[in-house]
Amino acid sequence: MIIILFNYRYQGLLNMINPFIFQGSFRMDVYSVLLCCILLLAVYKVLDFVIRIPVISVPPGTRKYVVITGCDTGFGAIFARQMSCKSPQYYVLASCFHKKAAEDLNNAGYPNLKAFQMDVTSSSSINTGLEFVQNVIGNGGGR
Question: How confident is the prediction for the chain on average, in pLDDT?
Answer without folding.
Answer: 76
